[in-house]
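Side project, low priority. Logging it here so it doesn't get lost.
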Amino acid sequence: MCANILRNSSLVELQGELGGPAGTRLLAWLEAALAQRRIEDFDTRYDFVRRAFRLSAPGRPSDRPHAIWFGHKTPRHERHFRRYETLFDNPENRPVYVYCLRNPFDVWRSYQAMPWNKFRDVDTFLEAWLRSVAVYELIAERAPDRVLVFNLDRMLRAADWRDYLEPTLFQPLGLSGETFSRPVITLRNSNSSLNKTGARPDPISEADRRAIARQPEVRRIAAEHFPWLGLPPPPPGLIRRDAKKSGRMARLRRTAVRAWRQARREWNRPR
């Protein structure tokens, strides 16, 4: 949904998903190519990456020469933060990141309805969801003024979507109504399970709901981003502390800790 909203503006050139191993290899190649060619002019470097994004985009690439923003929409690419910081290193024109966030209950419900769902159970899904949020939180610490959070739940709860989108996306990115091709309220989520499968997804099981709700890190995140869910707050002092006990919940608690450590190692890896 976020990608459709951004693409609706003529000032945004947003490519499709550069996901999987191909997206990872593309970023590694770009980093190596720019270093080998020793391109020092920032405009030349940025144009080189922009053309690579276009050529690598699935389907018909977006080509908007007058757009002031360019990029792509790829889930889980927050893990490549260090590489993006290397590719776009002009101190006067640093990259801006849009992190899309949705409550884990609805995300798991959507995943279960999709034929390409690779998560074997709620535990493996929850590990990935917690890891993603943990990496986002690290990025927000590293670049607090360059990370925008698109909370789908908050937008859908707003009486008027623009009331949420104006301060969250449009104003920070300098997007105004005259650049939109369609009214925002008419946009639809092209990746929704309803659009992909033709039917609304079934509710998640009560066992899965309980498994998600009792996870302390989920409760911490929900208190900040989804307070209307009414989940009990996590125990004080839990955040980023290694679990001592064994079992499913301890394993999931350790997931968030490992994600932070992995992200920090990636950031500090020699270039």
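Brief comment: Residues 122-142 form the longest helix (21 residues).
Revisit when time allows.
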